[in-house]
Recover the amino acids of this structure.
DNA sequence: CCGCAGTGGTTGAACGCTCAACTAAATCGC
DNA sequence: GCGATTTAGTTGAGCGTTCAACCACTGCGG
């Protein structure tokens, strides 16, 4: 049986393309700024952030992957690089011999602390400043709805 | 002089992280679906779409790069691959000897036509279906504001 | 005209991500 | 307890993106 495609109407078309352009431009810009100012891509920055917020500045690899919205493979490669940079250290998990624990080093914390102000300024300038408070609120609700929907399916 | 960082308040923090998670999950999902069903990443799909909408199904490389929100280098590499796949052909520009024109082949058009319904379904399912009509409208305004702001700076 | 800055486009290396295959350890089912 | 399944994490190959360097051509200033 042939199922008719529910094509996008002009308004949806416009919304989708605007969203695409905006999110791509935003992420590209922040990525470039972070690479220039801190020598790391945004994905790596986020890993350091999550570690810095965890108790003892450490997390199991799987938990870190979940927190950073990363695949295990991606995280494994990323932590290997972060370890080579001296920003993260790996330790064996005492309760599960399969496990590995990623620990943020003092050097990593210092690097993160140095990068954070500039990055936050970027987020503010490119995301929050152009939007009204109402729009920020709308964006939060929309994003939470989408994120919740995407992780459930 | 020391300038105080304007840190994100808890609401902004939450908004930013939700947006990050949502847009990343959305793009990852659509990318994976497109790769699985059509054998190409979303960026390549978009290039074919832009070509298919242009008069004569062809565009100057620079115009195509702008339309697809891509860097020239990225587009150059991408078109090389699309050409190898037989979906795009390169022609010399008659009015500017530096120029190259990317032309969508019949094969490319057919591949796009075959991929489109599944992709549109994905966009609908993951983006529009979870949102209310009002939220779709909000998202359009927000995205257009951000996109306009980002391209101006 | 001619020199030269700017534009259009490509290239190669380095890097990050994906996918599938793999090892090792924990846990489930009986 | 013991085999089968599942879970944790890593690895390597292949692909796409970035960045800087580069060539070829255009168009502007004098």
């Amino acid at each position: 049986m042939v199922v008719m495609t529910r094509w996008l109407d002009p308004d949806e078309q416009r919304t989708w393309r605007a969203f695409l352009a905006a999110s791509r431009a935003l992420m590209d810009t922040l990525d470039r700024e972070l690479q220039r100012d801190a020598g790391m891509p945004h994905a790596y920055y986020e890993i350091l952030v999550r570690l810095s917020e965890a108790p003892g500045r450490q997390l199991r690899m799987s938990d870190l992957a979940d927190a950073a919205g990363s695949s295990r493979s991606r995280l494994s490669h990323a932590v290997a690089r972060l370890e080579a940079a001296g920003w993260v250290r790996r330790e064996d998990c005492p309760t599960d011999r399969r496990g590995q624990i990623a620990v943020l080093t003092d050097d990593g914390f210092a690097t993160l602390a140095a990068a954070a102000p500039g990055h936050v300024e970027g987020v503010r300038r490119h995301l929050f400043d152009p939007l009204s408070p109402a729009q920020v609120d709308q964006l939060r609700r929309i994003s939470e709805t989408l994120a919740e929907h995407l992780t459930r399916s």
Q: What stands out?
A: Chain B has a mean pLDDT of 96. Chain B touches chain A through 50 residues (CB under 8 Å). The beta strands of chain B are 58-60, 88-92, 100-104.
